[in-house]
Amino acid sequence: MSDRREHMLEARGIAKSFGALKVANNVTLELDAGERRAIIGPNGAGKTTLFNLLTGEIAPDAGTVLLDQKDITRLTPDARARRGLGRSFQKNNLFRGLTVRESLTLSAMIALGKARQFWRDPGSDVEIAERIDQTALWVNLAGELDLPTDALSYGARRQLEVGLALAARPKVLLLDEPTSGMSPEDTGIMLELLNSLPSDLAMLIIEHDMDLVYGAAQRVTVLNYGEIVFEGTPEEARASDEVKRIYLGDWGDHHA
Ligand SMILES: Nc1ncnc2c1ncn2[C@@H]1O[C@H](COP(=O)(O)OP(=O)(O)OP(=O)(O)O)[C@@H](O)[C@H]1O
Ligand SMILES: [Mg+2]
Fold first, then answer.
1. Tally of CA atoms within 13 A in the half-sphere of 187 that contains its CB
2. How confident is the model at residue 92 (pLDDT cuts 50, 70, 90)?
3. pLDDT value at position 100?
4. Which one has a higher pLDDT value, 247 or 78?
5. pLDDT tens digits, residue range 194-224?
6. Distance between Cα 250 and ligand 1 center (Å)
7. From the CB of 48, is ligand 1 less than 6 Å away?
8. Which residues pair with 202 in a beta bridge?
9. Which pTM was predicted?
10. Is 49 in the pocket of ligand 1 (CB under 6 A)?
11. Residue 17 CA to ligand 1 centre (angstroms)
12. For residue 32, what are the β-bridge partners?
């Protein structure tokens, strides 16, 4: 067994049912500092629900979540975020009517418990301003900082969503289908962006796009009916008969 002290995020025996539907069935997984792991699985497998259980949007029926070796199972989503658990959502989730810079600043200030200062004087904090410039570089939006978020292309909006999570400077980032609905070009940009992030940032990425899985993740976890049915490298996942069966042959033909 690997050394527990290294784990940035750990789920132990997480279980959750919605009525008769078991959406998380004894889910145990570990994410080390700097590790990038993809979570794949069919629609309805329970991937987003697992993120909601990790972030505290939903309470588990059983099991424990640890962040940086501390039990966070009973903390609110805000408290988990302040301890370094960041997430971006599967569906577009931007502040309306703000510019890119304002959105990133607000996200950083919320994370620092300074949201009220934002509404008084958003540009007042030099440290945050520097953080926002760095974040904008990471997510390829340095040239768009003063545009309203409504003016961004779809791909740029999704980049901003990753930026909003990064503005809080998480230790662990959970990304729910960061390339869903994107063109192949924008998917390529997202892949480069994710690979340019600081190497100590741990990431769990729910993803259907196999180019992104191959390009961004060292490990793959396959979820089916709320249960982990496979763990390994992307290459091992592709060679696995069980994984192939689950995907019924629609496993990235362009990689063949
Ligand atoms: N709050 C809820 N109450 C009842 N059922 C729910 C709730 N949230 C999700 N479900 C159900 O749990 C199952 C898992 O949903 P979830 O959104 O986690 O799947 P997913 O793997 O993220 O799928 P997708 O790839 O389509 O995003 C689905 O059958 C869904 O309908
Ligand atoms: Mg989902």
1. 17
2. low
3. 95
4. 78
5. 999 999 999 999 998 888 999 999 999 999 9
6. 21
7. yes
8. 172
9. 0.91
10. yes
11. 11
12. 7
Distance of alpha carbon 124 from its chain centroid, rounded? 29
In 3D space, the residue among 41, 54, 46, 47 whose CA is nearest the CA of residue 11 turns out to be: 54
Distance of alpha carbon 78 from its chain centroid, rounded? 16
**Ligand 1, atom 24, residue with closest C-alpha:** 43
- Which atom in ligand 1 lies closest to the alpha carbon of residue 52? 18
Q: How would you list the strands of the sheet with 62-67, edge to edge? A: 21-32, 7-18, 62-67, 70-71
pLDDT in tens, 30-76: 999 999 999 999 999 999 999 999 999 999 999 999 999 999 999 99
Structure-token pair, residue 61: 């029926």
What amino acid occupies position 69? Q
Instruction: Give me the domains of the chain, ranges plus CATH numbers.
Output: 1-84+170-256 (3.40.50.300), 93-169 (no CATH)
Report the pLDDT value the prediction gives residue 254, as an integer from 0 to 100: 40
Query: Is the pLDDT at 155 greater than 70, yes or no?
Result: yes
Q: Is 59 in the pocket of ligand 1 (CB under 6 A)?
A: no
Token pair listed for 207: 């993803």
Amino acid letter, residue 91: K
Token reading at 111: 């994370």
Show the CA angle centred on residue 127, arms to residues 126 and 133, nearest 5°.
90
Query: Does ligand 1 come within 6 angstroms of the Cβ of 45?
Result: yes
Q: Is 33 helix (H, G, I), strand (E, B) or coil?
A: coil
Report the distance separating Cα 252 and Cα 110, nearest Å. Answer: 39
Q: Which is it for strands 36-40 and 219-224: parallel, antiparallel or unpaired?
A: parallel
